[in-house]
Write a structure and sequence with these properties.
Blueprint (H helix, E strand, L loop, with lengths): L1 E6 L6 H4 L1 E6 L7 E11 L1 H8 L16 E8 L11 E4 L14 E5 L3 E3 L6 H6 L1 H11 L9 E5 L4 H12 L3 E6 L2 H10 L3 E4 L5 H9 L2 E6 L2 H11 E9 L11 H7 L2 E4 L7 H16 L8 E5 L3 H9 L5 E5 L6
Parallel strand pairs: 8-9, 8-11, 9-10, 11-12, 12-13, 14-15
Antiparallel strand pairs: 1-2, 3-4, 3-6, 3-15, 4-5, 5-7
Helix pairs in contact: 4-5, 4-10, 7-8
């Protein structure tokens, strides 16, 4: 049976290399499930991979996108048939596989199709994946955060949004940094206890006055924020950083040693699958308790995938999704 899918055969500009094709629907093998996709999320890393900035091997063709949401329609050997019909959210679908989520159907290992609680919308399910799992692992990299003071840099971004919500769910006090009043509102809506504009001259003073020391940092711009982080860190604090713009960071080692500061560099794609599976279950527990909310999103049809990629490249602040619910084979 045929399906519609977005594919590319080589890296390049979105409008040059992305095309919509008809191809054979894959069949699930041992331990796999076939999912009818409802929404496919476009992450910055998906765009970078397609453009060639962070290239990955292409197995004849590549259907892009790691994250999405849908319903299981078939299972392979070793997967309980009771999972057929289950609504699921998907993570890292295209990592080491040609079957990303930008298609009517995708094929993933069963544990990468995680049951979606009835209370969670498909749009929320599609928004999870990379942002929520990055948030979870950075937030908890040094252990439980109950009663801890947590600083989320970039609190209005996708990772920041879920980091705030997961931290509140876990019982932490949450400080978020943002760049505009509108983004401050988003961080507050997500549940941040204190929000500060990182462009203010007295950012460190404001944070210290509120917290008297931060225990855990979820950091998106460590080079820009290093001096602030060091100034507000409590003794024994720990920083997890998950992004880079390529600049180098010079660290005052003696000062860090005296503060007992921990520093963890995080890349989701090299993180252990067992740890990510545990993170997925924890995220689903938070979903079941309605602790997570959808990101503001902008939706495109599958046929406009190039425009969707260009929107991400041009700095669209909303989460970009492809809507495949009414896609016709």
């Amino acid at each position: 049976m045929q399906m519609r899918a977005a594919t590319y055969h080589k890296s390049g500009e979105a409008s040059d290399v992305l095309s919509i094709i008809q191809c054979e629907k894959p069949e699930p093998g041992p331990g796999q499930v076939l999912v009818r996709v409802s929404f496919s999320a476009v992450n910055p890393s998906d765009v970078k991979t397609r453009s060639g900035k962070t290239p990955r091997p292409i197995d004849d063709f590549q259907i892009p996108h790691m994250d999405g949401c849908g319903r299981i329609v078939a299972v392979g050997p070793g997967v309980h048939e009771g999972r057929i019909g289950q609504r699921v959210w998907l993570w890292l679908a295209a990592l080491g596989s040609r079957w990303g989520t930008a298609a009517e159907y995708t094929l993933v290992p069963a544990n990468q199709a995680v049951a979606l609680p009835d209370s969670a919308s498909d749009e929320l399910g599609a928004c999870l994946g990379i942002p929520a799992m990055t948030a979870h692992e950075c937030l908890l990299h040094a252990g439980p955060v109950t009663h801890k003071k947590v600083l989320i840099a970039g609190g209005a971004g996708a990772v920041g949004h879920f980091a705030i919500e997961l931290a509140r769910w876990a019982g932490a006090t949450v400080i978020a940094t943002v760049s505009t009043p509108d983004k401050a509102k988003l961080a507050q809506q997500a549940g941040a206890d204190f929000v500060v504009n990182y462009r203010d001259d007295d950012v460190a003073d404001q944070i210290t006055a509120f917290t008297n020391g931060v225990d855990i940092f979820v950091e998106v711009a460590i080079v820009d924020n290093w001096n602030i982080d060091l100034a507000v860190a409590a003794p024994g604090a720990s920083i997890a950083t998950y992004a880079t713009d390529g600049r180098e960071l010079s660290i005052p080692i003696r000062e860090c040693m005296a503060a007992g500061l921990g520093l963890r560099f995080f890349l989701l794609y090299t993180h252990s699958r067992s740890a990510l599976s545990l993170a997925a279950q924890s995220i689903t527990d938070a979903l079941a308790e309605q602790a997570l909310t959808p990101l503001p999103h902008l939706t495109f049809p599958l046929d406009d995938i190039a425009l969707a990629h260009e929107a991400v490249e041009n700095g669209e602040s909303r989460k970009v999704l492809l809507d495949l619910r009414d896609s016709d084979t």
